[in-house]
Automatic annotation (TrEMBL):
PANTHER family with a match to the protein in the record: ABC TRANSPORTER PERMEASE PROTEIN YPHD-RELATED-RELATED, RIBOSE IMPORT PERMEASE PROTEIN RBSC
Species in which this protein is naturally found: Cellulomonas fimi (strain ATCC 484 / DSM 20113 / JCM 1341 / CCUG 24087 / LMG 16345 / NBRC 15513 / NCIMB 8980 / NCTC 7547 / NRS-133)
Database matches in CDD domains: TM_PBP1_transp_AraH_like
InterPro entries on file: ABC_transp_permease
Protein's name in the database: Inner-membrane translocator
Pfam families: BPD_transp_2
Transmembrane segments: 46-64, 76-99, 126-149, 156-176, 196-217, 248-266, 302-320, 326-343
Record region (Disordered): 1-26
Length: 355
């Protein structure tokens, strides 16, 4: 984020909104990369790449060809795709100073709603896009409800999204009647399960969402507003940003990402279930935090999130290849999250002491 000198401000008596947003963000996000590049995004991303390589080495050493096979690599990428899309949406929410505990449940709700529609008698006549639009609408709607409650209802984000997590999961169970809804629209399955240039279409969707997310966060006013709102809401308000409306947009974006995740989950499993997306919200938060996005808000990184997703998904695969229990995996992930948060705090304290 560029800084404007006082002479430039004197020449421009009425700064436009983009300039004011940049100034608001700079109140809490001072760029120290000029002082030491390894303290910036490049240094953090290098550390994540090294961590990913180390996890892969552990996988090769402990599981051998079972881990190093092309089929297993494709499995890792397919699993990373759904979590990755959720994590991109979560990056915006956390960068904006919020948290969303409902995205996993919204994945389940959107997939169940769409798959239930696709199991009706007229399902054979459906175009596959009907499933996609339905799931996206459910996700966007859930995100908007979260956003309105938090931004305009002044409900604490943790409470509002926790309530949505429970409600969405319960509604999914009611709609599915505790049964798995198998998708009957073959054209949808054909699209979602195909490979393009040897890469699963789910991975391509993740890649597109990641690129769009990177551009949105790093090259648009929306991204600058997000950083400003997360870093210092009052300074952002004084800079002319409608903080409440922008907060609502952030949760709507996370809900939309969850809707996309629901579509991808349907394509991967060929069925809608109320358990789809279970605990994905925790994995998404973990991937975002490990990737370098500040849990307190004010700084976000899409590249770091992508690397965090790959690290967590690969680590889960290594655990599975070595027959580690689900409970043990959860403990290991919890430890990683705690360590990541502690490191963030130490780095932040060290940065403040330098300034």
């Amino acid at each position: 984020m560029s800084e404007h000198g006082t002479s430039a401000s004197a020449r421009v008596p009425a700064a436009d909104e983009s300039s004011r947003v940049e100034k608001a963000g700079s109140v809490t996000a001072v760029d120290r990369r000029a002082r030491n590049p390894l303290r910036g995004a490049a240094g953090r991303n290098l550390g994540l790449v090294i961590a990913l390589v180390l996890v892969c080495v552990v996988g090769v050493v402990t599981a051998g060809d079972r881990f190093a096979s092309i089929d297993n690599l494709m499995t890792i990428l397919r699993l990373a795709a759904v979590l990755g899309v959720l994590s991109i949406g979560m990056t915006f929410v956390i960068t904006g100073g919020g948290i969303d505990l409902s995205v996993g449940s919204v994945v389940g709700l959107s997939s169940v709603w769409a798959s239930t529609l696709a199991t009706q008698a007229m399902a054979d006549d459906f175009h596959w896009s009907v499933i996609v639009v339905t799931a996206l609408a459910v996700g966007l709607g859930a995100g908007l409800v979260n956003g309105v409650l938090i931004a305009y209802g002044k409900v604490v984000a943790f409470i509002a999204t926790l309530a949505m997590m429970v409600a969405a999961r319960g509604l999914a169970e009611m709609i599915a009647n505790r049964q798995t809804q198998v998708v009957r629209v073959q054209s949808f399955l054909d699209v979602m399960r195909q490979d393009v240039l040897g890469v699963p279409v789910l991975v391509w969707i993740f890649a597109v969402v990641a690129v769009v997310g990177w551009v949105l966060l790093n090259r648009t006013t929306f991204g600058r507003r997000t950083v400003a709102v997360g870093g210092n809401p009052e300074a952002a308000r004084l800079a002319g940003i409608d903080v409440r409306r922008h907060t609502m947009y952030l949760y709507a974006l996370a809900g939309l990402a969850a809707g996309i995740g629901g579509v991808m989950m349907l394509g991967r499993t060929t069925a809608g279930s109320s358990t789809n997306g279970l605990y994905y919200e925790l994995d998404a938060i973990a991937a975002v935090v490990v990737g370098g996005t500040l849990l307190a808000g004010g700084r976000g990184t899409i590249v770091g999130t992508v690397l965090g997703v790959l690290i967590f998904t690969t680590l889960t695969n290594v655990f599975t290849q070595n027959n580690l229990s689900i409970s043990a995996q959860a403990v290991a992930k919890g430890v990683i999250i705690v360590v990541a948060v502690i490191l963030q705090q130490r780095i932040a304290e060290r940065s403040r002491s330098v300034t």
